From TrEMBL:
Biochemical pathway: Secondary metabolite biosynthesis; terpenoid biosynthesis
One annotated Gene Ontology cellular component of this protein: membrane
Top-rank taxon, per record: Eukaryota
Organism: Crucibulum laeve
Listed name of the protein: Cytochrome P450
Cofactor(s) of this protein: heme
TM spans (from-to): 20-42
Similarity section: Belongs to the cytochrome P450 family.
Keyword Transmembrane: yes
Amino acid sequence: MPYSLPKLELYRDIRLLLPWPSARSVVILLASLFIAYFLNLYRYFRLAVLSINDFPGGRTVFSVELILNRFFGSIPGVLLSADYSWTERYDPYEKARWDIHSTIAAWPRGSTSLWLADADAIKEVTSSRVRFPKPVDMYAVLKVFGPNIVGSEFDEWKKFRRITAPAFSERNNKYVWDATVRVMMNVFENSWGWRDEITVDHATELTLPIALSVLAVAGFGSPIDFIEEKDEAPLRPGHDMSFKQALHIVAKDIWIKLVLPEWAYGLYPRFRRMRKAFAEVELYMREMIYERRTLGKTEDRFDLFGLLLDGNDNPGVDENVTLTDDELLGNLFIFLLGGHEASAHTLCFTFAALALYQEEQEILYQQILKVLPSDKTPSYEDMHSLTQSMAVFNETLRMFSPVNVIPKYSAEDTILTASSANGDQMQIPVPKGTKLFIHTPGLHYNPRYWPEPETFKPGRFLGDWPRDAFMAYSAGSRGCMGRKFFETEGVAVLTLIVKYYKITVKDEPQFASETFGERKARIFNARNILTLTPNRVPLSFSRRR
Ligand code: HEM
Ligand SMILES: *[C@@H]1O[C@H](CO)[C@@H](O)[C@H](O)[C@H]1NC(C)=O
Ligand SMILES: *[C@@H]1O[C@H](CO)[C@@H](O)[C@H](O)[C@H]1NC(C)=O
């Protein structure tokens, strides 16, 4: 059988290269390790499922926390999409038939999370920082510039909170109001020239620069009144990107920094741009710190950052409570992100909602007319009378909470009580280490607290409303420090815009025949990037006469 000869020869060659007995044992060893590894993973997965009494929810191979889902989207049984927390809203709870649902992944081994849309369970979690601390490893994305208040716990957090707290004072809020009015008058006079009709292709073209300008003035005492849209404005010496541009890229592409090693940043134009933007933001922040330090203490340094630096440079009794430069950068970045991204996106969603719900805009307009009858500049004292503006923001934040998941974990073996729509209750064992996700879209679209959750109804905030079922700013000792800052800025922006301009959805021929439902779906379309981000909100602003 001559044709079998080459085969034999090949076999002999292999035998010469790899002595057969040892090759076989290597293969067998590897295979058994592999099998043992998977059996072990499976064992942990089963243990995790049993540890919470198989409480209903999603079961996947990979954990939802992994960045993988940025690339692959949702694969049933394998991976939940990065947008899971937003697109699914209350649905997983409806399926589970409880206002808590679980997700368990085989990898990392037996990773167990309980998602909460139950106001009582959430209240229990937010009211004890010791029993339910933050999983600081999940905040790596926010710590790229340095340690900071949002991504820390225990003594480190206390130190940051102590130094930053004085910056968020009533005095600062008034400063925010006045700064916002100045920024808006500048928009009307210089940028819009009081034209009768202004259209934007995406409202964030307007809200991002407004939020950044308010932050620049009220947050950093900058003399810049309105950061111009036009990118051809001269850059500061030593820079290749405007601050706005760099910040925008950082917010969009920050996750690249987490998944790729540094040497890979040079491989692809988008990565190179991200690397450049990071360097730019860092340089801008270092310049701010330097300038504020050399500027010295001025009389009216009520801006956020001035107060932060004052607190840091003059720590009072406890000399040890000062921030290193990295910690200063890290916290500065958090202010920038909170004050820029979350605020601008919320303003954008607010305009979108008012454009779609004209009758709500009219109610708001009538109250503004009543509170500010003449051409009088609105003052900080007027804010308390502008209840409808506040209700509009709360309703926007209910529907479009910028932070979709507020993660905590259980520091001990404990028990949480889940409720169902028909009032039943069930105890869930919560083993130490279980992740607890306060899930704002789940809570905010829970019909038990918010009837007709898909409808924009600011009026629901004017009577009695379920305070514990509103978690846009988190709550308890780890609640948002910038809430008043944002509310003040937001009410001033909204009041001035609606006083002078009527907001409508921009007419575009390709959408001429759409129904209200289609239009709403298009305008409200959003994605979870760093915070919830509107997709495209084309608007017209027409001058009221
Ligand atoms: C619409 C606007 C805003 C919303 C919805 C919002 C929401 C939140 C949420 C949900 C948290 C908790 C995050 C977590 O535990 O993971 C938080 C924390 C925080 N926010 Fe905001 N925020 C907003 C604006 C701002 C602004 C304008 C600032 C500052 C200028 C700010 C500063 C902070 C700080 C410092 C913390 C950390 C508090 C701590 O951990 O002790 N936020 N915010
Ligand atoms: C500051 O820290 C040093 C060493 O870490 C310690 O010896 C000193 O007592 C601390 N001072 C105060 C005021 O806490
Ligand atoms: C809006 O929500 C905040 C809590 O985040 C609350 O203090 C305030 O009273 C609410 N205002 C209105 C008018 O709904």
